[in-house]
Amino acid sequence: MESWINKQTNLSISRFDIVMDEVYPNSKKYSKDAQLFIDHIKEKTNYFEAVEVINWEKIIPRSSSVVDLGCGIGWLSAYLSRLKNVKSIFCIDSSKNYIKNLLPMIFKKMNGNLKKVKVIEGLFYPIILDENSTDIVVICASIHHADDFEHLLKEIHRILKSDGKLVILNEDPRSYFNYLIMSLKFFIKVFFHLISKKFKSTSQCLNYSNILTDPDLGDRAYPEWALIKILKLCSFKNITKIDSKYPHNKKTKYFERNSNLVHFVCEK
Ligand SMILES: C[S@@+](CC[C@H](N)C(=O)[O-])C[C@H]1O[C@@H](n2cnc3c(N)ncnc32)[C@H](O)[C@@H]1O
Questions:
Q1: Smallest CA separation from ligand 1 atom 27, residue
Q2: CATH fold group of domain 8-172+237-267
Q3: Rounded to an integer, what distance in angstroms lies between the CA atom of residue 69 and that of residue 72?
Q4: Do the beta carbons of residue 111 and residue 82 sit within 8 Å?
Q5: CA 107, CA 160: separation in Å to the nearest integer?
Q6: Is the CB of 72 under 6 A from ligand 1?
Q7: C-alpha 241 chain-centroid distance
Q8: Looking at ligand 1, which residue's alpha carbon is closest to its atom 12?
Q9: Beta carbon of 152 within 6 Å of any ligand 1 atom
């Protein structure tokens, strides 16, 4: 008997790939070719440059086990796998295309050490790893895809060893004022949609601590204070913010928001 649960779960896990193909057809130009994908990231963003400001030798102790959550095509894992202090890496992502097709090619291109890596096709939570099993969790440009930050951070806290660290990378949380303006604009938009009786099956939405800005891919905008509050609520300590000084996007149009990429290093 075929299990509907398995099928439904697989479909839900494949959602990122389906949406990329259907909603962002331009991504097909690079989504099957490792070099084109790297070129695309390097051309559009400062992700690669921004992670260089981290003192990895200091953060990652000797013989560390690392989890790269929402690893995507795996460029950060490839970079980290070259560090001598990294013993093993679990690369976790929901996109079959990224982790099965592109990740091995990316490791080749970037001289990564695939022997240190275990690739897992899965969702952010629950993380099916033992408690106190991991030295370092990195989550690069991905935490804003979680629909429940608290659930995710509690899971990360659970799998980290007592002296483990969480490194949140390449995010651009909003300032208090920017988030306030965004929320007001959102209210006005909802109001006009209501009076004009507009129907949309998927739409942006606002909750107390973030705004779902891309209902297809699940991107969320959130204020910095909210992230720090949730980190503390989930018992993370010594939260250090690192401003990479690199703007998020390389090319931006006039008036387009272009805040710096920031990182947060937190201790369990
Ligand atoms: C913007 S990409 C960042 C990828 C990569 N870390 C990087 O820096 O290039 C976000 C990634 O999160 C993954 N993702 C989104 N929602 C997820 C979920 N619920 N569970 C697991 N991965 C998810 C996507 O498949 C995608 O690879």
A1: 72
A2: Rossmann fold (3.40.50)
A3: 9
A4: yes
A5: 25
A6: yes
A7: 17
A8: 70
A9: no
Q: How far is the CA of 245 from the centre of ligand 1 (A)?
A: 23
In the numeric block, which tokens belong to residue 105? 């090619």
Q: Is 94 left (phi over 0), alpha (psi -120 to 50) or beta?
A: alpha
Instruction: Determine the pLDDT at residue 180.
Output: 92
Smallest Cα–Cα separation from 25: which of 196, 236, 216, 163? 216
**Going by C-beta distance under 8 Å and a sequence separation of 6 or more, which residues neighbour residue 223?**
173, 174, 175, 176, 178, 179, 209
* Residue 146: count of CB within 10 angstroms of its CB: 21
Question: What are the residue boundaries of the structural domains of the chain, listed by start?
Answer: 8-172+237-267
Q: Is 37 in the pocket of ligand 1 (CB under 6 A)?
A: no
Contact assessment for residue 170 and residue 50, using Cβ atoms and an 8 Å cutoff: yes
Ligand 1: distance of its center to the CA of 262 in Å?
A: 17
Label residue 18 by pLDDT band (50, 70, 90).
Answer: confident
Q: What is the dihedral sign for C-alpha 239, 240, 241, 246?
A: negative
Q: How far apart are CA 84 and CA 38, in angstroms?
A: 24
DSSP secondary structure of 40-76:
HHHHHB-HHHHHTTS-HHHHS-TTEEEEEET-TT-HH
Residue bearing the CA closest to ligand 1, atom 9: 72
Cα–Cα distance for residue pair 197/71, rounded to 1 Å? 40
Residue the block writes with tokens 């601590």? 209
Please give the structure tokens belonging to residue 153.
């951070």
Q: Whose CA is nearest to atom 26 of ligand 1?
A: 72
| Per-position b or e across 49-83, b if 16+ CB within 10 A of its CB | ebbeebebeeebeeebbbbbbbbbbbbbbbbbbee
pLDDT in tens, 193-250: 889 988 877 788 888 889 999 888 889 999 999 999 999 999 999 999 999 998 887 7
